[in-house]
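PROTOCOL LOG
Step 1. Enter all chains and additional molecules of the complex.
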Amino acid sequence: MFVYQKNLQYPVKIRNVNPRLASIIISQYGGPDGELGASIRYLSQRYSMPYAELKALLTDIGTEELGHLEMVGAVVHQLTRDLSMDEIKKAGFDAYFVDHTAGVYPTAASGAPWNAASIGVKGDVIADLSEDLAAEQKARVTYDNILRLSDDPDVNNVIRFLREREVVHYQRFGEGLRLAAEKMNEKNFYTVNPAFDR
Amino acid sequence: MFVYQKNLQYPVKIRNVNPRLASIIISQYGGPDGELGASIRYLSQRYSMPYAELKALLTDIGTEELGHLEMVGAVVHQLTRDLSMDEIKKAGFDAYFVDHTAGVYPTAASGAPWNAASIGVKGDVIADLSEDLAAEQKARVTYDNILRLSDDPDVNNVIRFLREREVVHYQRFGEGLRLAAEKMNEKNFYTVNPAFDR
Amino acid sequence: MFVYQKNLQYPVKIRNVNPRLASIIISQYGGPDGELGASIRYLSQRYSMPYAELKALLTDIGTEELGHLEMVGAVVHQLTRDLSMDEIKKAGFDAYFVDHTAGVYPTAASGAPWNAASIGVKGDVIADLSEDLAAEQKARVTYDNILRLSDDPDVNNVIRFLREREVVHYQRFGEGLRLAAEKMNEKNFYTVNPAFDR
Amino acid sequence: MFVYQKNLQYPVKIRNVNPRLASIIISQYGGPDGELGASIRYLSQRYSMPYAELKALLTDIGTEELGHLEMVGAVVHQLTRDLSMDEIKKAGFDAYFVDHTAGVYPTAASGAPWNAASIGVKGDVIADLSEDLAAEQKARVTYDNILRLSDDPDVNNVIRFLREREVVHYQRFGEGLRLAAEKMNEKNFYTVNPAFDR
Amino acid sequence: MFVYQKNLQYPVKIRNVNPRLASIIISQYGGPDGELGASIRYLSQRYSMPYAELKALLTDIGTEELGHLEMVGAVVHQLTRDLSMDEIKKAGFDAYFVDHTAGVYPTAASGAPWNAASIGVKGDVIADLSEDLAAEQKARVTYDNILRLSDDPDVNNVIRFLREREVVHYQRFGEGLRLAAEKMNEKNFYTVNPAFDR
Amino acid sequence: MFVYQKNLQYPVKIRNVNPRLASIIISQYGGPDGELGASIRYLSQRYSMPYAELKALLTDIGTEELGHLEMVGAVVHQLTRDLSMDEIKKAGFDAYFVDHTAGVYPTAASGAPWNAASIGVKGDVIADLSEDLAAEQKARVTYDNILRLSDDPDVNNVIRFLREREVVHYQRFGEGLRLAAEKMNEKNFYTVNPAFDR
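Step 2. Run joint prediction.
Step 3. Record the structure below.
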């Protein structure tokens, strides 16, 4: 089970609103490679993971990503406080606003609501960890792109923290994959399952 | 942020596998009225909730639902351990198995992956709480239906616990709605926003 | 069955085109809380509704919402007549135009086509009516937001009429829920189904 | 606007329940080529249809399809009344039942909720009528397949009526297309728009 | 099987970038009536097509559409090379850029990822060919709209070629439908299947 | 552009029909990790791939996957020829049959139509190749599962060929990733982009 702790993992204090930027950053809330997908992917993959170390890794990172989801939500929220209708229209934020006002809804920047089709749970050690490595790289690119698009230091500060964490997760999943390959070798399994390769 | 605590909110100990039942219960993992939708709905609605008591209520219930998601995942997992191909085929579990093996994937019993279109975040106190009341009733019905379909006491024990929690949440959201109505009256707002009703 | 009557429920006469506003208002045609969802939700819930008064209520409101769908379509249509390519591009209406020209397609303002995942039919009196109460509140907020974004009196006139109807429907569904609770009591059923609560 | 008339267009009186058959027939309620899609397609295409005769045709057929939607819903409902849990499980109806009990929800037989991606509104006379001709043929095939799968005379009676209506609609849309081609010739337009073909 | 040939079917040489136009044209890559849908529709319908001439027609056109998909991708790519962040933001291309940088992703202009719900494979000669006729008309309209929105001669040159091919395909499918009707008559079948019409 | 060659990459000759198995194998046609997704993913990623060798690799594998898509379609087709209604119903194939007869439609075994949300095109060398490595592993698992579920030697023969190709692709993408990392080092770029890591 999960226990909520009142502080964010890293503080979010944004001084200036910017609804356009919010409508881009929301992709890390509910977009194809965002934090919602990350947390649900890892927390779901745990059940069929046969090795305790890797199950713990998935739990650990999955729980941290829930905290990142919260942080991205806070960024979006702070960028959209007390907007005038004029600011909303100029930023093209009206298409989001009409259905969600200034609420935080799990959608991609493109407008597509989050869909579990964007995550994979294959019930296979190697495939699931490969999925996770790809996921971390895709999230890293999304943060890169946000940094390219944003010049708000209050935002970039947070985004840089989140981006760095994805890099760390990528490395940890890399170690996890090596560990898995070793363990499978011991039991005479390979990345390409020899039971089917003979 | 969230801290993981190793125990489940309520213990899950299922002695007999039952892939058919697993493929029904998974709807409370990733179905239209399941625990994934519940937790993401409440945790997302928090940001635009203007009253501290209600923000706390959403955080509190949203976090608990994450624990329920975990419990439902554990039920599905325990019902699908060490299956033979024969058991899988007889149960019609092959359509799930081909893409997820015995992993736990956020899907409805119908086979549709979870889609955020099934939750509402409107950025409006009354609408969001009404959505939550409906959500709890819909989750309650899904648990009712699982209880109607299952005769495994190990499973039903857990489902009854989860169902009871939804009833409690429904009551708490009902109190929340009353509280919100009062607060809005103080500031001269009504359920039907008088700014537009004049 | 349904009979078409040539007049709209409330007249729509819009003098000035405004493709940007059309692309926002279309969310009440095919968006998550729009009139398509409303009518299909209520007309679908009728079948399993056990009480004649409530079945009639669903039929009645569901049929009226079909007429509202038609009105919203008329608003969108009148706001997008005889546009120049320049008007289309300046309004960002090109993303819609390329696939639908000036046709009226059931989509959200966000660009997501209407999806039945956004409505609930649970086959349960209390859950379905709670869903309906939430739906009316969510539609009301969407109309509020359109009124916030639009300053065209010809449009707002129509939107105010539609918004008012949602408030009336909300009240009628509220009465419906009270009626249902009473009826269920008579037969010794409660909101929380005692068959499962013992 | 629409007026509800209490009788069905054609009577539905089914004596024997059959949840398996219901779960197939529901595709004509909310499946890719079903009556929901038909009615929304035609009623949506009306706005941009430039010729009064064709606008009337779309209104006329679209309204009739709403009545067919109602009839298909009635078939599904009557096939799923008073089921025992045993009947539900044997028929594989449990995957539907868990989320909708015996309510009628707009889904395909495959389990995918209805999605407006399955209909086209192009705002172009020829394209829209071609879409409609295709739609009627696809609906006709679905009814053919239901007739192949069902041996319940009470059901087939209704399905044959509905199938026949699709054939009539196909012919009427064919006449509509011929009419449109003539009208466009008068104004020096062709099926292949000469403005772009020079 | 397919063999790749290094040249495009028709050359794409675009001198000036234009991210806004790219974000519109991409609908012919991954939108509801685009080339991805076209190729997959025809190549999938082949299997159940009973007549060799029509199977060959589907293979032929389906393969050509794969080449058109490639051409549209090339247009989108060339319109989005070496963009500055400023150009990206001004064009509203940031919503696409954040998730795909300058990669080519199968999405509609509206932002909805391509969904197979937008194509029909009915396993019926008449229905499938009617679907194909409609598809070609819908693609033609999309190209018409691109030509209306674009004033880049390098782009329009390519789009005109692609549009013309759709018109040719429409005519070929028309001949295919006449051929099918004749063949079915020989075996005593009609457009309206007499086995069910007696 | 693509040229069609009449033979399959590997012959498909299945003697016995088996609609249940067909409804599982179709996931490699239109499921989350199937051949449609594979080919579109690689052929789409080509445009933004900066290195000629890797562009060629994507074209090469993407084109081969189109041939695999064709082979999987042939397997599904041959497993569903000349079925009786009785065979269809016993196999639970009726839910597919009602909407597609014996046509081959791009759907997952679960019933969800193919959705581009299941593929990633990030416009970033490392992320795209990581996505591809994961994709090949996920496809490999799906083939493993088909081999676990099927005991038809005619089918397994083909599936084993396809599975082996995925393993080869995985290795080639692994080499591609190493090549990319080297190339990026030359230009002073790392897997974790130092421009953002300083």
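Step 4. Note key features.
The first helix of chain E runs from residue 19 to 25.
The two ends of chain E are 43 Å apart (CA to CA).
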